Amino acid sequence: MKKIGIIVIASVAVLALGWLGWRAIGRTDVGADAPAAVVSRRDLSASVLATGSIRPQVGAEVKVGSRVSGVLQKLHFNIGDAVRRGDLIAELDDRDLRARVAQAEAALEAAEARLALVRLGSREQEIAQARSAVTDAEATRALAEKQLQRQTALFAEKLVPQSEVDLAVKNLDSAAARLDAERERLALVERKYLPEDVAVVSAQAAEARASLSLARTQLSYGRIAAPIDGVIASVSTQEGEAIAAGFQAPTFVTLVDLDRLQADAFVDETDIGKIAAGQRAVLTVDAFPDRDFAGTVVAILPKALIQQNVVYYDTVVELDPSDGLLRPDMTASVRILVGERKGVLVVPTPAIKREEAERVVYVLDEGRVVRRVVRTGWRDGGFTEIVGGLAEGERVLTGAVPPG
For residues 391, 396, 402 and 404, what is the CA-based torsion angle, rounded to 10 degrees? Predict the structure, then answer.
């Protein structure tokens, strides 16, 4: 029995030593000042980085020119000046344009006067005179008809020769012909102008009105106004210079709306599949390194850009208003947010170590360090998502792991 007791006591001692040895495996004493972080929850976002440049949006850069030839008389703004839509930018010497307007106005007055005369028709005096002539012709015809009757009766009694009867017939025919002519003349006087005449004169008046409208429009081109809100980016014509307008309008100034800018971000082909319209983006420029500017992806251009055998795609990011700080052609670093996860477990990225094929962290447990294999997810801004292997509230080393 004594041997059995000794064996039991020895076995318990061996088990106790084994348990203490197992507790010691993977654990190392560590000082209280070792750099550590608490496993916590936060929102993460995945992003794609790209380099690009700032450019005006379509329609945000306008070259303002003249549509008529002339001499630049006055330029009201200079480079860097802010203008509002409708502000008068430049004026041409418009004396010849005003003369054309006066000429067109006179031509229109003449055409409208002719139209009024045609629509009015004949005067009352002309109509009365024509009617009087018809009445006189009717009386002459009636008289000639009676004269023929008398001559015919006298000829039957053989009191006059045949020649008198023939003369009476001739006079009657002449009177009848004159009556017909006077009646036709009266009809023409009463309807002096045909509908076709009115249409022709109306068309001439319409042409005169169109010519006047064109002249006035060309006169308005002598005053050049700003088509958009913006800033004068360049001035290419000075006061006193002659301008010859042809197929291409000569440019006075170039306007840029600094509130309507975009960034052309060149995304690597390996990341372009993650990009879609509507994603938010954040960019920085060298001029303001401590400030972030926001925008939204609006398009991905289909044509690739190849540089040093690397394929890039132009991703257009429409920028939010920047209070006029951003300028065209600035170089920008663009971060496009392709996804977001809320309330996930994270640790600082330096806490995760790669050992062989595993990702591990070292957890602080009552002054000792425990090696723990973990599964990771997204990375964002110095933090890495922990999918498995850690619990919220645990503390992990973020610095070098103590030896042993």
Answer: 0
Contact 221, 68 (CB under 8 A): yes
pLDDT at residue 248, rounded to an integer:
60
The CATH number of whichever domain residue 324 belongs to comes to 2.40.30.170
Q: Which domain range does residue 132 map to?
A: 122-192
Span of 66-70, 89-93, 341-345 with lowest mean pLDDT: 66-70
Task: Give yes or no: residues 85 and 135 share one domain.
Answer: no
Is residue 203 a part of any domain in this protein? no
Is 186 found in the same domain as 235? Answer: no
Query: pLDDT band at residue 404, thresholds of 50, 70 and 90?
Result: low
Which of 143, 176, 192 terminates a domain? The answer is: 192
Strand boundaries in 280-402, DSSP class E: 280-285, 288-307, 310-319, 331-348, 353-355, 358-365, 368-380, 383-388, 395-397
Tell me: the pLDDT tens digits for 244-268? 776 566 677 889 998 899 999 999 9
Residue 336 makes CB contacts below 8 A (sequence gap 6+) with 47, 48, 49, 50, 265, 267, 275, 279, 280, 281, 297, 315, 317
Beta strands in 101-227, from DSSP E residues, in sequence order = 223-225
Q: What is the CATH number of the domain that holds 239?
A: 2.40.50.100
**Residue in the block written with tokens 């480079």:** 79
Compute CA distances 364 → 21, 31, 213, 389, whole Å.
19, 10, 88, 14
